Amino acid sequence: MDELKNQVNNIKKEVRIKVVGYITAGFGLVAGLAWNDAIKSLIELIFPLQKNSVLVKFLYAGIITVLLVSITIYLTRLFEKEDQVV
């Protein structure tokens, strides 16, 4: 019976952890959308082309892709180093 209670408690804990993760991801999405709009406005200010120019959109996508890939690589290496230390 204790084993069943432990399993139920573990499941409850996992559900809470997942829910917090999903809420955090939602907040991250909102922040990402805000930054998306800000960066697009900055690019349009720096490169005053037509408002819906395909060139500006591709430039923006390229810059963001390079930036996010670089950050992802950095964070992955950072966490791998922390795992090796622990």
Describe the model.
The two termini are 35 Å apart. The chain is an all-alpha fold. It is built from two helices and no strands. It has two domains: 1-46; 48-86. The chain crosses the membrane at residues 20-38, 58-76. Pfam families: DUF5654. InterPro entries: DUF5654 (IPR043713). Keywords: Membrane, Transmembrane, Transmembrane helix.
Q: What is the structural class? A: mainly alpha
The amount of beta strand, in percent, is: under 5%
List low-confidence stretches. Answer: none
For the record, the count of structural domains works out to 2
H/E order of the elements? HH
H/I helix tally: 2
Mean pLDDT reading: 85
Cα(first) to Cα(last) distance is 35 Å
Radius of gyration: 21 Å
Shape: elongated
InterPro entries: DUF5654
Keywords: Membrane, Transmembrane, Transmembrane helix
Transmembrane segments: 20-38, 58-76
Task: Describe the structure concisely.
By secondary structure, the protein is mainly α. The protein is about 90% helix and about 0% strand. The longest helix is centred in the first third of the chain and has 45 residues.
Question: Could you name the key traits of this structure?
Answer:
single chain; 86 residues; mainly alpha; 2 helices; DUF5654; membrane; transmembrane helix; transmembrane
